[in-house]
Amino acid sequence: MATLDPIARANEAERIRVAAAAAERVVSHHPTNGDEARYPGKWGNYSKGLAHDSRGDVVLASYDSLIHALLTGLPADFENIQLGGNVPLVDPQSGLAYDLQGADCQSLTMKAPPALASAERGGEAVEDYWMAVLRDVPFTHYDSHPLAQAAIDDLNKLSDFRGPKESGQVTAQTLFRGFTPGDLIGPYVSQFLVLPFDFGALHVDQQFQTFLPVTEGGKDYLTGFGAWLAVQNGQATDPSSLRGLPFGSNQFGKRLYLHDGRGIAAYVHVDVLFEAYFNACLIAIDQGAPFNPGNPYNSTPKEEGFGTFGTPYAKTQVATVASPALKAVWYQKWFVHRVLRPEAYGGLVQKTMAGASDPNHFAYPVHADVLNSDAVARIASANGTNLLPQAFPEGCPWHP
């Protein structure tokens, strides 16, 4: 029963909070894939922004300074991380923060990612290389374009590819799609990214600024080892220059509906954190999507929901969940797995293949499926290196 008595109200509010905290109290264990202990050179772990040697391997003293800060959790130790340049790491202390709603960010867990040397990780890498090759191919052409067919054939040859399939095979309908229920149904791009909607009095037609395709003067980035190494070190005259292509850049083309990988890249590069699902919420409400049958306002003609169980409530909840989700994910990123990104995996591919004829070269644990991939061969032929081409000049973000 709700009460207006201030003392009773304060006591009840305290009781509810304590009960909620007790219900959410979980002590979790966080498995890793073992790569950090397995490789003294930390080849399987994220090191972008730290100091690297001329070969592109992380300087261990720099890596250890990061680990020391993560272990102590002291702000002063984070200030003493030995960076390779002047671009800061993105919010490594986020996983130490507490939320007053829901589970603590460190009580949530996830399974370990595939090990660096595994065929599964190799399969992921081959898919990444093909995504780069097909970046300018429209999704609607996947069933006819020769590059898409080459990707399908190559992915079907892999010894361990976990991407979505039909009858055990990668097809044009499954290529680069997700693995959750419904992902293989319908057009490639969700209607939530196509339908117009109203943001209050502002009408929004979902046409996005996109990067120019290579055929029209656009480009891929970090295809040369020198540029790749500088970015791994976080070296920039102006750190903001490594934060991406600004709107108005000559690399931006016309406003278009999202229809290819490069357009999706432009979208996710600068999207507001909860933009996609907030817009989806607005569209769903405008389309008359019903509330859950258990909503108490469904059964009364005297009241309608607003701040509780109404449309403003639904919209704010979509945004509110983003902050605690970030803390949970950032804990996994920095404090548990520290997994290298595809950009760095591409560096291992390049160093492995470039040094194959050198008896003194490092034996990086890159799976043979990657070294024999048609996608890697095509990129090497086009760019002169085996590095994974990036859609942005700064490559991946400065967090694992």
Give the secondary structure arrangement, pairings included.
Elements: H1 6-24, H2 35-38, H3 60-72, H4 75-79, H5 119-133, H6 146-157, E1 197-199, E2 202-204, E3 208-211, H7 225-232, E4 252-256, H8 261-270, H9 275-286, H10 311-320, H11 322-337, H12 342-354, H13 368-371, H14 374-383
Antiparallel strand pairs: 1-2, 3-4
Helix pairs in contact: 5-6, 5-14, 9-10
Describe the structure.
Helix content is 38%, strand content 4%. The protein has a two-stranded antiparallel sheet. It has a two-stranded antiparallel sheet with strand order 3-4. Helix 5 (119-133) crosses helix 14. By secondary structure, the protein is mainly α. The protein is globular, with a radius of gyration of 24 Å. The chain has helices at residues 6-24, 35-38, 60-72, 75-79, 119-133, 146-157, 225-232, 261-270, 275-286, 311-320, 322-337, 342-354, 368-371, 374-383, and strands at residues 197-199, 202-204, 208-211, 252-256. Strand 1 (197-199) and strand 2 form a beta hairpin.
Query: What is the number of strand segments?
Result: 4
Mean of pLDDT? 92
Class inferred from helices and paired strands: mainly alpha
For the biggest sheet, the summary is: 2 strands, antiparallel
Radius of gyration equals: 24 Å
Spatial order of strands in the largest sheet = 1-2
Oligomer: single chain
Strand content: under 5%
Order of helices and strands: HHHHHHEEEHEHHHHHHH
In whole angstroms, how far apart are the ends? 47 Å
Shape: globular
Work out the helix count: 14
Helicity range? 25-40%
